[in-house]
């Protein structure tokens, strides 16, 4: 089966399973989404959703976040991984938004990626989920599943993003990003798999005899 045929099947099946995938990180606007995405690095969305109600109650905009300051932010987000660095970044990011962007979250990859703690993946999630701009953020789940489904060689996350963008129509990127994450969490975890237990893989690889191998992100 050709790679494009596999991609089409994946898109159809995920569309059937998750017709309207919700955004998993709780937020109320662009700023709180940006904060939640930044906090989710090396951490589950569930954990992030446990600390953000209090953080957003006391610092739901860049001015109040900056005024709260690194030490107080850290007190609230301490249960999360990399909390010290994240607290520092949230203070710095809020200052940059106030100084350079009129307190608003900028709407370009370049400007977003210039903010403290915001890399390409975080910027892509914000562009997609806050502004509806097509993007394909690749995290470890997506990197793993794309390899198990034979959609990329998995050489790097950059390569995986480029391969997925080529195989799927732009209009489907934002939903697919979420659908693949949900499928990864629920069915195709990081644990080993013989590559035949799910209907998707049996359809893509009816003659599969060996478990698929994956390269880490
Ligand atoms: S069969 Fe294994 S590799 Fe394929 S989708 Fe299911 S869990 Fe993932």
TrEMBL record:
<dbReference type="InterPro" id="IPR023170">
    <property type="entry name" value="HhH_base_excis_C"/>
</dbReference>
<keyword id="KW-0227">DNA damage</keyword>
<dbReference type="GO" id="GO:0140078">
    <property type="term" value="F:class I DNA-(apurinic or apyrimidinic site) endonuclease activity"/>
</dbReference>
<keyword id="KW-0004">4Fe-4S</keyword>
<dbReference type="InterPro" id="IPR005759">
    <property type="entry name" value="Nth"/>
</dbReference>
<keyword id="KW-0411">Iron-sulfur</keyword>
<keyword id="KW-0408">Iron</keyword>
<comment type="function">
    <text>DNA repair enzyme that has both DNA N-glycosylase activity and AP-lyase activity. The DNA N-glycosylase activity releases various damaged pyrimidines from DNA by cleaving the N-glycosidic bond, leaving an AP (apurinic/apyrimidinic) site. The AP-lyase activity cleaves the phosphodiester bond 3' to the AP site by a beta-elimination, leaving a 3'-terminal unsaturated sugar and a product with a terminal 5'-phosphate.</text>
</comment>
<dbReference type="InterPro" id="IPR000445">
    <property type="entry name" value="HhH_motif"/>
</dbReference>
<keyword id="KW-0326">Glycosidase</keyword>
<dbReference type="GO" id="GO:0051539">
    <property type="term" value="F:4 iron, 4 sulfur cluster binding"/>
</dbReference>
<dbReference type="Pfam" id="PF00730">
    <property type="entry name" value="HhH-GPD"/>
</dbReference>
<keyword id="KW-0540">Nuclease</keyword>
<dbReference type="GO" id="GO:0019104">
    <property type="term" value="F:DNA N-glycosylase activity"/>
</dbReference>
<feature type="domain" description="HhH-GPD">
    <location>
        <begin position="39"/>
        <end position="186"/>
    </location>
</feature>
<protein>
    <recommendedName>
        <fullName>Endonuclease III</fullName>
        <ecNumber>4.2.99.18</ecNumber>
    </recommendedName>
</protein>
<keyword id="KW-0234">DNA repair</keyword>
<dbReference type="InterPro" id="IPR003265">
    <property type="entry name" value="HhH-GPD_domain"/>
</dbReference>
<keyword id="KW-0238">DNA-binding</keyword>
<keyword id="KW-0479">Metal-binding</keyword>
<dbReference type="Pfam" id="PF00633">
    <property type="entry name" value="HHH"/>
</dbReference>
<dbReference type="InterPro" id="IPR011257">
    <property type="entry name" value="DNA_glycosylase"/>
</dbReference>
<keyword id="KW-0456">Lyase</keyword>
<dbReference type="GO" id="GO:0006285">
    <property type="term" value="P:base-excision repair, AP site formation"/>
</dbReference>
<dbReference type="GO" id="GO:0046872">
    <property type="term" value="F:metal ion binding"/>
</dbReference>
<comment type="similarity">
    <text>Belongs to the Nth/MutY family.</text>
</comment>
<keyword id="KW-0255">Endonuclease</keyword>
<dbReference type="GO" id="GO:0003677">
    <property type="term" value="F:DNA binding"/>
</dbReference>
<keyword id="KW-0378">Hydrolase</keyword>
<dbReference type="InterPro" id="IPR004036">
    <property type="entry name" value="Endonuclease-III-like_CS2"/>
</dbReference>
């Amino acid at each position: 089966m050709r790679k494009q045929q596999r991609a089409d099947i994946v898109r159809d099946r995920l569309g059937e399973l998750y017709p309207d995938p919700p955004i998993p990180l709780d937020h109320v606007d662009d700023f709180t989404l940006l904060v939640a995405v930044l906090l989710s690095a090396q951490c589950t969305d569930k954990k992030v959703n446990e600390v953000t109600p209090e953080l957003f109650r006391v610092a739901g905009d860049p001015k109040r976040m900056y005024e709260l300051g690194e030490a107080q932010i850290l007190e609230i987000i301490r249960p999360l991984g990399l909390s010290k660095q994240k607290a520092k970044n949230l203070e710095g990011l809020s200052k940059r938004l106030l100084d350079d962007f009129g307190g608003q979250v900028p709407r370009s990859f370049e400007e977003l990626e210039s903010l403290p703690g915001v890399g390409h993946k975080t910027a892509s999630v914000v562009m997609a989920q806050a502004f509806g701009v097509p993007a394909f953020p690749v995290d470890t789940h997506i990197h793993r599943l794309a390899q198990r489904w034979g959609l990329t060689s998995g050489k790097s996350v950059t390569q995986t993003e480029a391969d997925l963008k080529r195989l799927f129509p732009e209009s489907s990127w934002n939903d697919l990003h979420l659908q693949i994450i949900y499928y990864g969490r629920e069915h195709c975890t990081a644990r080993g798999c013989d590559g035949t237990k799910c209907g998707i893989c049996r359809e893509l690889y009816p003659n599969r005899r060996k478990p698929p191998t994956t390269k880490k992100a």
